[in-house]
Write a structure and sequence with these properties.
mainly alpha; Four Helix Bundle (Hemerythrin (Met), subunit A); about 0% strand; elongated
Length: about 150
């Protein structure tokens, strides 16, 4: 059923990538501004992080659906020995997924640690570190050789 929607899911996933990257940058910049201004951990700081993690969660769910519908993943599952030798097949079936699961976990850890921090600076610092690492992992796991925008 989902195989009929592969191109639509791919376009959605490709577009959401930019929302995730922009939201991640906004959360990091917001943390840097708040740390430098020594402001209390106000709702804006939490909202930027929440937006980043929410876009990341949505992107991950679309990515799961895309994996189910993907002929690339099906090719690897049908013949793993051949799939692991082909860079593109291996990247999408294993590497991309692994990078993004790690990034998702790191972003959620950052959200929890910043919420549980005892003071504002520590909260922003925790969010900055964990969101920053998750964004680096995301950037490392994006297939930049594929079209940047799909319509």
């Amino acid at each position: 059923m989902l195989t009929n929607h592969y191109t639509t899911l791919l376009a959605i996933h490709s577009t959401l990538r930019w929302f995730v990257l922009i939201a991640g940058l906004a959360a990091i910049i917001g943390c840097l501004i708040e740390i430098s201004g020594r402001r209390p951990f106000v709702p804006l700081g939490r909202v930027l992080g929440l937006i980043y993690v929410s876009f990341l969660d949505t992107q991950f769910l679309v990515g799961i659906l895309l994996s189910i519908a993907s002929p690339i993943v099906h090719a690897v599952c049908s013949n793993p020995a051949v799939g692991m030798k082909n860079h593109d097949l291996r990247f999408f079936a294993v590497e991309h997924t692994t990078y993004m699961v790690i990034a998702l976990a790191l972003a959620h850890i950052g959200a929890v640690k910043s919420r549980k921090a005892t003071d504002s600076v520590k909260a922003y610092r925790m969010a900055l570190i964990w969101y920053g690492i998750s964004l680096v992992v995301i950037i490392g796991g994006i297939p930049w050789w594929r079209p940047l925008i799909r319509i």
